[in-house]
Specification:
Layout: E1 2-5, E2 8-10, E3 19-21, E4 37-39, E5 42-44, E6 48-50, H1 59-67, E7 71-75, H2 87-95, H3 99-106, H4 113-125, E8 131-134, H5 139-149, E9 153-157, E10 164-166, E11 172-174, H6 175-181, E12 186-191, H7 194-201, E13 207-210, H8 220-224, H9 230-247, E14 254-258, H10 264-272, E15 277-280, H11 282-285, E16 295-296, E17 312-313, H12 320-325, H13 337-348, H14 353-356, E18 361-363
Parallel strand pairs: 6-7, 6-15, 7-8, 8-9, 9-12, 12-13, 13-14, 14-15
Antiparallel strand pairs: 1-2, 3-18, 4-5, 10-11, 16-17
Helix pairs in contact: 1-4, 2-3, 4-5, 7-9, 10-13
Length: 365
């Protein structure tokens, strides 16, 4: 702990840009490296998730990303479940001179349960794993509906998620009881500390999201002063995963980094810090075939009382497939995420992701 003044102490935390990976004395061919990721009964060719943001995941992009080995997550409280055809709204958001007000207006429309069923059916018809996201406030209402409609994985995602969420009505959502009753694997988050992660792991979640307030679409730090130093947060939650593995007698909960990964190097460092997977937003929003048309925003941006995000203009760099697997025409880490991860693993001599979590790291600033 560091004394920052008076009697106030603060713990030192490190972001991804303050750490780096140290090469070992052994290397291997990239052909001998595996990026396979398995969670519950589902296996993926890459350890990547697409964040539940309307600028990133539509039914069509979920199918495209699924074909690339990425688990794309559709926001059940987004435009795709509020409007039968939101295409022109997406264009309006990208072109708007007052995007925050427009976002608030568009997302004021009610969520349609019929559209939830239709979107899940559409993605499932594409032959990929169906992952959907809900906020803690609407989990009890929407998650059972999604599971009954055929969703394979449910993500409960908020700025910060606790093991028991108390609503304005005084009713509480006990995640342990809820997850036990829901007949699909559940991923929950965000969290940023060892203790908070342990609480979420004890609910029976299959995975825990790490991070809040650090993504490209967030202004959480500016509005409420909250930001996560992601390298430290991922390492802390990875330590909680080890503690819970002992506590539970062998139950493994996946650690999923969520936020502050704008370049492939950041994604690689997340795995080096202990992540099992990475949830990516802004990098996929740069795709020419992403639904945001070169713009990027998250759920925080349309909050009716206290928006904590902005619509961001993104340089389009290539297709979703090129951003995932290349080939890359850029040297700035915005394309070929999997290629970069495989190269880092090969350069340091590790053959799979679990081994790579043991790689040596250094503090650079």
């Amino acid at each position: 702990m560091t004394l920052i003044g008076g009697s106030k102490e603060a713990r030192r935390g490190y972001s991804f840009d303050q750490v780096a990976i140290a090469p070992s004395r052994r290397t291997r061919d990239t052909d001998l490296v595996s990026t396979q990721w398995t969670i519950d009964a589902y296996s993926f060719a890459t350890p990547l998730m697409a964040a539940p943001m309307d600028s990133v995941v539509s039914p069509a992009s979920a199918i495209t990303l699924g074909g690339c080995g990425v688990l794309a997550t559709l926001n059940l409280e987004g435009l795709w479940t509020r409007y039968a055809d939101p295409a022109h709204h997406l264009v309006s958001i990208a072109e708007s001179a007052s995007p925050t007000r427009l976002l608030q207006e568009l997302y004021a429309a009610p969520v349609d349960p019929g559209l939830i069923r239709a979107r899940i059916a559409e993605i499932k018809a594409g032959g990929v794993t169906v992952s959907v996201a809900v906020s803690p406030q609407r989990t009890a209402e929407l998650a059972p509906l999604a599971a009954a409609a055929g969703a394979d994985i449910v993500v409960i995602r908020g700025t910060t998620v606790s093991a028991e969420h108390v609503s304005a009505s005084g009713e509480s959502l006990n995640l342990k009881e809820f997850i036990h009753k829901l007949d699909v694997p559940v991923i929950v988050g965000g969290c940023a500390t060892r203790q908070a992660a342990l609480h979420l792991m004890r609910t029976g979640a299959a995975g825990v999201l790490v991070g809040f307030g650090g993504g490209a679409s967030h202004t959480t730090a500016d509005v409420i002063g909250v930001r996560v130093p992601m390298a430290s947060a991922v390492a802390d939650v990875a330590a909680a995963r080890r503690d819970y593995l002992d506590e539970s007698g062998g139950r493994y909960v996946h650690v999923i980094a969520d936020g502050s990964m704008g370049r492939s190097g950041d994604v690689v460092k997340a795995f080096a810090c202990g992540a099992d997977a990475a949830m990516i937003g802004s990098m996929f929003a740069r795709a020419s075939d992403a639904p945001g048309h070169g713009s990027h925003w998250g759920a925080e941006a349309w909050h009716v009382h206290l928006p904590r995000g902005e619509r961001q203009a993104m340089d389009q760099v290539g297709t979703l497939e090129e951003i995932v697997h290349g080939p890359s025409q850029r040297a700035d880490g915005t394309m070929n995420i999997v290629g970069a991860l495989r190269k880092a693993m090969a350069t340091t001599g590790y053959s799979d992701l679990k081994e790579f979590q043991r790689v040596e790291m250094v503090v650079t600033s």
